[in-house]
Write a structure and sequence with these properties.
This is Exocyst complex component 8. The chain is of the alpha+beta class. Helices cover about 65% and strands about 10% of the residues.
Length: about 700
Amino acid sequence: MALSLGEGGGSRLRRQLESGGFAAGEYVKQLSQQSDGDRDLQEHRQRIQALSEETAQSLKRNVYQNYRQFIETAREISYLESEMYQLSHILTEQKGIMEAVTQALLLQADRDDPALGARRAAAADPFLPLSAKEAAASEEGRQRTLTTLLEKVEGCRDLLPESPGKYLVYNGDLVEYDADHMAQIQRVHAFLMNDCLLVATALPNRRGAYRYDALYPLDGLAVVNVKDNPPMKDMFKLLMFPESRIFQAENAKIKKEWLEVLEETKRNRALSEKRRLEQEALPRPAPAPSESTNPFEEDEEEEEEEPSAEEEVVDLSLEWIQELPEDLDVCIAQRDFEGAVDLLDKLNEYLGDKPVSQPVKELRAKVDERVRQLTDVLVFELSPDRSLRGGPRATRRAVSQLIRLGQSTKACELFLKNRAAAVQTAIRQLRIEGATLLYIHKLCHVFFTSLLETAREFETDFAGNNGCYSAFVVWARSSMRMFVDAFSKQVFDSKESLSTAAECVKVAKEHCKQLSEIGLDLTFIIHALLVKDIKGALQSYKDIIIEATKHRNSEEMWRRMNLMTPEALGKLREEMRSCGVGNFDQYTGDDCWVNLSYTVVAFTKQTMAFLEEALKLYFPELHMVLLESLVEIILVAVQHVDYSLRCEQDPEKKAFIRQNASFLYETVLPVVEKRFEEGVGKPAKQLQDLRNASRLMRVNPESTTSVV
């Protein structure tokens, strides 16, 4: 039987495989019985495989389509969640504003009509004491309740001294969760008093007994509502710089009560503190002078009373002073560093000539805590862990505010650390190209541009702090050492040619001169850091030239050069002219012959090339190294010519050797001496002595002595 692979057969096969009572074993058995042979089974297998691939493709398309719909739905849900959160935040702010306005209006009405305020308070709270006796009884009852509850908490007696104004406002059980992983930590019991919040943990073996855990003043406590995210719900967060804790209430109602009572208690605490400061600021009547017959005692009393009279002048009831700690918190939270420092400057200016009274000390303590917080935030802004993008100007804001806070030394240290990390990161991110010179161009551009920008920004930020400039010079030296490490690793450790090393050093020197625009000269530093590597490169290249010269000397046949073509002769003339040999034409013969040995010509070109590249690397610390290297190279050629003159017996070859010696002594050595003096700026006595010694050898060529 032939099984069709058509569309109709595929649909029948699909329906058969999709049927609920399909049995694979029975299907294969029936198929085997009905097939005519192996070919039918192969064709049926291909049909099933094609159907499988078609099903897989269809499944992929459906999954992709569903995935796209899922992504779009998730995006819409995210947008909706964000809008709902913003709406909830706006409603919470509106509620707080309306409550604050209502409270302010009620307080104003109470001041205008005290009797109306008392009736309203009595109507709002049926348990409000109506007489002095009842007030004393209520106060005593609150104290008794607080004492009874706190007797159940171990370790809090010494931390909560008894005071007539302290009483319990609210208490209840809570569950604490980890702020990072939202894992349950422990069950606690919180006691909210009119000035602080006490957190205690339950003792495992004693019912209704607790152990002291923490105590937080309400002045430095902030309450934040945590949005429900099942199964995490009915939670709120307490912020106490620099830590925070998350608690879960039993249900939404208790959570709402905690949030409301905490905000109300904080508000009442702030109002009572404001009233206390206003009362302290009021002038007090002077005590009646006691009768005394001692005149000096009156003078002492007057002197003692004068400071107290001055202390009474300090008025801390101004609205901006009362709200100063909260305003500083807002500025720090909103990263308005300039606004925070402006408030501090305003306070310092106001209290500059005022006496230091107890209220002033308390205010200073609160402000100093905010100053520490502000300093920590600014220090973090300048830390290398932060983003290094934006260049040196990105740090100006934090640096300027630290300087205004009197932290110039810390600002300088952090600024330079930040810039050092930025420069190091920029160097590490440079891609190492195949061509060394191209990489060095990029390296010098990145490093010296960063150094120049840092120097200009430092001069702008620390213009009035001359003591910080020494720190910048030290930083520049350490940065230059980091640059030289990267430079040497690419140029000298990779065994580049002397010409490449000379070009790279030349590029670094040219970029270093750009710093002179701002009065900063680091050339001597880069010289001191590179001198060891350059010495090694010069000595290595000197050894290569000496070995090459000795090898050519060993194969010397003292024959004239035949360049074969006029083009080759013209090229040699140009090379010798570029080396400074202007009279080379007198050593050329007929056609393409040169009346010099190949060894002497090659030595001349190699020696002059070495001198030119070495002069690019030259600075005073390398004077003797370069001079000694030249003398050693020249001595190899001089000794070879001297030895050949003494040993050669053929008159024609001896005359040819004298001609090469004449070219070497009268042309090459003066050119080397002149070019060295031009590049260095002073003559070299060692080269002059070497030339004079060569003249002695020319006078007495049969001498058995040689220059060493």
